[in-house]
């Protein structure tokens, strides 16, 4: 390992550690917030909505979608900080004078978001499974697939939200983006219905929806707990998530460099 | 002859500015700037608002790249090994950019960590700097509660944490009351005794006059003069820095500034 790389990795590590350390103050509150939110949704879709004719496993479907949705909400909330910072005090400029390249600062921000979201959101899985104990098909559970997909979706959403945050200028346009586009991508992802449900209604719409980057993480998060049947193949979702993550990272880094005119 | 530390060669900087009618206008912030900083000297960069001081200090701090030209540190381009250069550089920006959820002490400790300082040196160095800049009483406070003068002290302490050989202070005394400014400038003067080179950008002439070994006057993106104060006085037959400064900057603006000062 070269000296420069060692120094940069050291800075990177301490920046990440410093970011995660700040979570100490708020993590319990956030666990409670998200447990209440996910708990309510799980109970409603697991026990009340089936009485209106929804399928019995819709509760677990929604609970898992909620896990992915919480990732988006947590990271979107975090990314508003960078939107206001880029428009105002540019506190991030301090990090751009540290001994690491500008793209490492960008990746560090995304990693910090991903780690925070993963730590806050992890509480939702055991809680949801506990609330739906009798409705879970335990034979379908794959811990390996979950351990693979959980970090991946957090990293994906971190790079996706950070890309939006650096691409859209100003908090007004940022909110507008999420209303006009982000919410639609979310609604047509696998939160309310799986891709195959849409396919059953309109093949054309389902195929168009394959360009929606959010479809893959939302589909993939269901598979470790509900099995492969009825979802896009897990082993197609994984490379698609990695591909979109790389795409958002590369474009985001270019925009970040251009906006901050970094060296 | 003092050792040359930093050599800025023919640097230009253009950037696009968006006009009200959405058109973009190219602004030339620096027009072929050349400047040398020697080891252990305090060089003041003087200029009016918008003269290009912050642009130049940001380029030297590697926050922004120059459009053309070179920045050499100890004879080598800073872009050849930017990591190594940043380890030797302390940058104190105009606006405070602290990590507000960390205490004063932790801001310093983490700054040391980011710059790869050994574990056993970080805390003693933070304590030493807090003492030097009278921050000990605030060590467990958050930066938000500090007054303007103390915030600037913390900014400098943070920039010095990793023992840099060059420190850039970008208008550090803006908004400070005269008493705090005086104490603050005394602290800056001590840096020279430690062998640290200082690039001080300011538009306060009297602080440049008191502190600097050399002054550099910049106007509209061009360097007008760089020399010791005595040499400038002799060369231009002026009594003080104020007269020298107004000799170089726009005459129309000069009369306005003088009137306002009166």
Poorly predicted regions of chain B: 251-262
Q: Total helix count of chain B?
A: 10
What is the CATH first-level class name of chain B? Answer: Alpha Beta
> Going across the major beta sheet of chain B, what is the strand order?
6-7-8-3-9-10
Q: Looking at the structure, what is the overall shape of chain A?
A: globular
Q: Low-confidence parts of chain A, pLDDT < 50 over ≥5 residues? A: none
* Largest β sheet strand count, sense and barrel closure of chain A: none
Number of β-strand runs of chain A:
0
Helix content of chain B: 25-40%
Whole-number total of structural domains of chain A: 1
CA-atom Rg of chain B in angstroms: 19 Å
Percentage of helical residues of chain A?
A: over 70%
Question: What's the end-to-end separation of chain B, in Å?
Answer: 41 Å
Structural Rg of chain A:
19 Å
Main β-sheet of chain B, in a few words?
A: 6 strands, mixed
Q: Which secondary-structure class do the elements of chain A indicate?
A: mainly alpha
Descriptive overview:
The complex is a heterodimer of chains A (263) and B (262). Chain A has 263 residues and is an all-alpha fold. Chain A has one domain. Helices cover 75% and strands 0% of the residues of chain A. Helix content of chain B is 39%, strand content 27%. Chain B has a 6-stranded mixed sheet with strand order 6-7-8-3-9-10, with helices on both faces. Chain B has a 4-stranded antiparallel sheet with strand order 2-1-4-5, with helices on one face. Chain B has 262 residues and is an alpha/beta fold. The chains are: A mainly alpha (263), B alpha/beta (262). The interface between A and B is medium-sized, with 24 and 27 residues.
